[in-house]
Design brief:
Blueprint (H helix, E strand, L loop, with lengths): L2 E9 L5 E4 L1 H11 L4 E6 L5 E6 L3 H14 L12 H10 L2 E7 L2 E2 L6 E6 L5 E9 L1
């Protein structure tokens, strides 16, 4: 088995934001000329995460609004600055693993890889590890 790691920077512009990083992941696979294997995406931050869902800005706003309903930005937290972001990140998770077949991630018709910023704006990093 071979393993390759690529780190990519990402700048967010809002406190809470969703960014489609599918193209970035596709470019990593292409640059390494991987035909089949697994791509792992890791966000090495405690206030950001990744998920898979549709590329639809109205859905993204619905998601962010429900996240705020579930874990309000302001509350009587013991960790007052950004507790909401830490809590949401622990629920959504910082990593994904996606099979790669014929040089492409095996995503469903509407599926996209989404980076979720929970405490921005910040410069972030996504670590892509390919196992093939």
């Amino acid at each position: 088995m071979n393993i390759e790691k690529v780190e990519k920077k990402l700048n967010t512009t809002k406190r809470m934001q969703i960014i489609d990083i599918t193209t970035q992941a596709d470019e990593v696979i292409s640059s390494l000329e991987i035909n089949s294997g697994i791509i792992s995406l890791w966000v090495p931050h405690t206030t950001a995460c990744v998920t898979i869902n549709e590329n639809d800005s109205s859905l993204w706003q619905d998601m962010l609004n429900r996240y705020k309903d579930l874990v309000p930005l302001e509350n009587n937290y013991l960790h007052p600055k950004n507790a909401h972001a830490h809590i949401l990140s622990s629920l959504i998770k910082p990593s994904l693993q996606i099979p790669v077949i014929e040089g492409k991630m095996t995503l469903g018709t509407w599926q996209r890889v989404l980076f979720i910023e929970l405490d921005g704006p910040r410069q972030r990093k996504v670590v892509y590890t390919l196992m093939y």
